Every structure is written in structure tokens, then in C-alpha cells.
Amino acid sequence: MGEIDIKVGDYVVYINTGTKGKVVDIKKDENGEVWVLLDNNLMYRPHLLKVIDKSKIEERREDIDEVVKKLEEEELEDGKLKDIDLGEACGAG
């Protein structure tokens, strides 16, 4: 698998969609094709991935958290969501 410049632990971006993640494994299939497994449990062809700085991953997560918080606040203001206390509610079963 020396033909690729990606290694386990690298942070990469999938160039077609912008999906970012951490490389958790690199495998060859029965046809000899190399696949890179990311922490989202999806496999990608290495030529479609680009190694990036870890800080790019953290920026993305912070952006998502900020957007979710803002949406929740807007929904609460509009009365579409209710802030309720579930007390001692338990799961199904």
C-alpha cells in the first residue's frame, strides 16, 4: 500500500463532497484496489481524498454546533419547540 500518501491517523477531506474525517484503516480488496476507511465508517478511494490539517475538522464541528444551537433558539422563540423537563423518563421497554 506504499503507492498512497495517506496513513492511519491522518485527517482527510473527500474532494467530491467536502466530507472530512480521520483515517482509521487502509485496506486492499480482493481485486487489489486500495480503500481508506474514515471514522464515519465509509470507505473512499485514496485518489479522491486530500490530507488536511486537524484544525479544519475542529472548525467544521464548531460550525455545526453553532448552527444547531442557533436553529434550536429560533425554534424555541417561534414556539415550534418546547423546553420541557422529562424528569425521570426512561427509554423504551
Automatic annotation (TrEMBL):
Tree of life domain: Archaea
Matching InterPro entries: DUF2098, UCP037053
Protein name: DUF2098 domain-containing protein
